[in-house]
Amino acid sequence: MIVEFISRAILLSIPLLFGAVGEILTEKSGHLNLGIPGIMYGGAIGGVIGAFLYENACGNVAENMNPFLAILIPLLSSMIFSMLMGLIYSFMTVTLRANQNVTGLALTTFGIGLGNFFGGSLTKLVQSDLPSIALTKTSRFFKAELPFAKDLGWFGEIFLSHDFLAYSAILIAVLASIFLTKTRVGLNLRAVGENPATADAAGINVTAYKYAGTIIGSAIAGLGGLQYVMAYADGVWSNNAFGDRGWMAIALVIFALWKPSMAILGSFLFGALCNANNYLKGLGTETQELFKMLPYIVTLIVLIITSMRKKREHQPPESLGLPYFREER
Amino acid sequence: MANQAAIELKNITKTFGSVVANKNVNLVANRGEILSILGENGSGKTTLMNMISGIYFPDEGEIFIDGEPAVIASPKDAFDYKIGMIHQHFKLVDVFSATENIILGLEEQGRYNLKAAEGRISAICEQYGFELDPKKKIYTMAVSEKQTVEIIKVLYRGADILILDEPTAVLTPQETQKLFAVLRRMRDDGKCIIIITHKLHEVLSLSDRVAVLRKGEYIGTVETAKTSETELTEMMVGKKISLNIERSEPKDPQVRLEVHHVNCSNREGALVLDDVSFHVNAGEILGIAGIAGSGQRELLEVIAGLQKSDSGAVLYHNPKTGNVDNLQNKTPLQIRELGVRLSFVPEDRLGMGLVGNMDITDNMMLRSYRRGKSAFLERKAPKDLAEKIIEDLEVVTPGTTTPVRRLSGGNVQKVLVGREIAASPTVLMAAYPVRGLDINSSYTIYNLLNEQKEKGVAVVFVGEDLDVLLELCDRILVIGGGKVTGIVDGRTATKEQVGLLMTKTEGGKQE
């Protein structure tokens, strides 16, 4: 049971990890993107649309589907959706200098509405009895696991039984960590988020970095939505099933102190905490709901501890949430 | 190398909205020389230099570098022309180390290597005599260290035209001397150094030539060796100003405020005020002198009720009731309710004194909003006050509805002092009220303080310019390392005497 618990916690943690790493890159560019829940939702529906169209094109027969395309098409359509939303956010906040919080919250509302609109339309299109669409054929390609994983007992189940997106998430987090701390471009990006005027004076194109950080961050976050639908939910989309994972990803950013490597551990902890109620016997419904609060409570505790220790390296990027305009006096 | 034009400006004009910041400026700076740009506040010195360093783009005119026409559209272009600017407000990322800040934005050959960069930084430090730990984080640094980082940053980029915007404003005299030594070494190395300042004695001691700007216009360039303080002042302000500040004899001095054995610690637990005792009389100006950060700020904040003290007493002699009240550890509101009319002009004008985004009228209301009777704001009186201050103190502003942050430093200060004086205080405390102000505005402030003194107000003036303190104040309290190191008579004390007292506890602290 412990093996199952750990394996399940990892599965639950992956969307959060994608979301958090995407948001960390975005926040390092100085953007507090509260649109992440909407962007993850948009990324999920984008993948669903891509998968739906490809399955239809193949006549809904699994044998006709090319494994490579079955993965590539949803992946691309998911990223197009989330990157477009990141572009909207950047255009609003950088070019038009709109308030970041308002833009982000609007984007979340917009993304969820968009997802539910397409989700509902597709459900109607297939004339399903259930309020959901099942893309199990595509999901099977996403969930393909290593052939020898089953022979390795608990080790295989915990470490090798996951879908390829789960490993990508960890790889992306590690790469993001290296990018931020060990490369020149990463240094420049951090400078933009800390102090754009300084970065500007140093000859860094602040606008380009802000756009790039936000759009690439959104694409990564959107993959979290895709992974949720295709791997966690077995390819079954139903409106609003994604829940509050987007907000949890934002909480995870704070928990991880804006470090992608910490986000890997944090996401696993969050996944375990979300999951614990299912493995503790004899809990009533109300106690289960209390359990679901744990990730947020842990985040609050981290906030309290870091603000008490006052270590500058553990604070959010200094100009997070602030607009930048060069000639402002 | 020497006397070869490094940079030449021709007919440069820049406007911000309806404000003309620079108008037809012509300027030449040579290699192997130090050129000072002198001008009052708001004369367009910084704007002009920002155009050379690519922060702003000129509306009209041409820039020539080494005789070739140059287009500097961004800071990156400026680097390509080997121009480096050290801004008045440092442009550094606090959580980065010195090295990270120095290499920021560079596109060096080879892979990202902090170690190698640190080596090159150490080499630059050695060449020009800087002291810097490349691994130190900016937020743990003192101001002079941050400035060193800024200078090395531009040198690291191979700059040979260096622009320094009021580099000495935040330095102690010793640090200033060190900086000047480094700048002279760079000049001898063939670099072109442009320094923006309004401190005349620095101009005279450091630079080879002086260019003067007045209200955005170029007045002329003179050789330092062939000019004098009076001539430069004349060029700068357009009319001769008597350097004497009026000082009347205090009338009927009575003790108004007593500070007894006040101790105060900062957040880290270090003692910032150590057994401070003194008194202020009504109708006199008490100057407070000291090296920046010796506890001046905390002292005023303890009196104003903004900072808690550990022990001691602040006694106020109320002239109306004759009572003696202890103000120690009371909030500003409690102090006001005791009937104490205390005005405070803080050092941080737009942080503590005024709200930058609000207009002049609204800033007036910050002090008077409690007077209203209904739930709605009473706007008439503060608007009248705002108009009166604009007229009386000659505040340059489009109107009472302009956000305060859009005004220049001197005008912001006039608004703040005007408001504080309008409250007809019995105690007026001003921290560095002329910092960053030009000569004319400074004199306006001195006159206002003198007026208050003649009205019988107890004035506390924290200043940095010893000449001003000695000419303006009746008594000068010298503070060093949180201790009162001496109280001298402003009429008889000498500059050396005060300077000696200022540095006295610096040695004592190390015992």
Short description:
The complex is a heterodimer of chains A (329) and B (511). Chain A is mainly α.
What is the beta-strand fraction of chain B? 25-35%
Radius of gyration of chain A in whole Å, from Cα?
20 Å
For the biggest β-sheet of chain A, the strand order reads: 1-2
Integer tally of domains of chain A: 1
Helical residue percent band of chain A = over 70%
- Spans of chain B with pLDDT under 50 lasting ≥5 residues? 506-511
Name the overall outline of chain B.
globular
Average pLDDT, all residues of chain A: 89
The total beta strand count of chain B reads 20
Which protein chains make the most extensive interface, counting residues with beta carbons within 8 Å of the other chain's beta carbons? A-B, 24 and 29 residues
Record the strand order, biggest sheet of chain B: 6-7-8-3-9-10
Element-by-element helix/strand order of chain A: HHHHEHHHHHHEHHHH
Oligomer: heterodimer
Question: What structural class do helix, strand and pairing data of chain B support?
Answer: alpha/beta
What is the annotated CATH architecture of the largest domain in chain B?
3-Layer(aba) Sandwich
> How many helices of chain B does DSSP assign?
17
Count of helical regions of chain A:
14
Structure explained in plain terms:
The complex is a heterodimer of chains A (329) and B (511). Chain A has 14 helices and two strands. Chain A has 329 residues and is mainly alpha-helical. With 511 residues, chain B is an alpha/beta fold. Chain B has 17 helices and 20 strands. Chain B has helices at 45-52, 75-80, 98-103, 114-128, 143-156, 173-188, 200-206, 229-237, 296-304, 332-337, 349-353, 360-368, 380-392, 409-422, 439-454, 466-472, 495-509, and strands spanning 5-16, 19-30, 33-38, 60-65, 68-70, 83-86, 161-165, 192-197, 209-214, 217-223, 255-265, 271-281, 285-289, 311-317, 324-326, 342-345, 427-431, 458-462, 475-480, 483-489. In chain B, the strands form four sheets. A six-stranded mixed beta sheet of chain B has the order 6-7-8-3-9-10, with helices on both faces. A six-stranded mixed beta sheet of chain B has the order 16-17-18-13-19-20, with helices on both faces. In chain B, a hairpin with a 6-residue loop joins strand 14 (311-317) and strand 15. In chain B, helix 12 packs across helix 13, helix 13 (380-392) packs across helix 14 and helix 14 (409-422) runs parallel beside helix 15 (439-454).
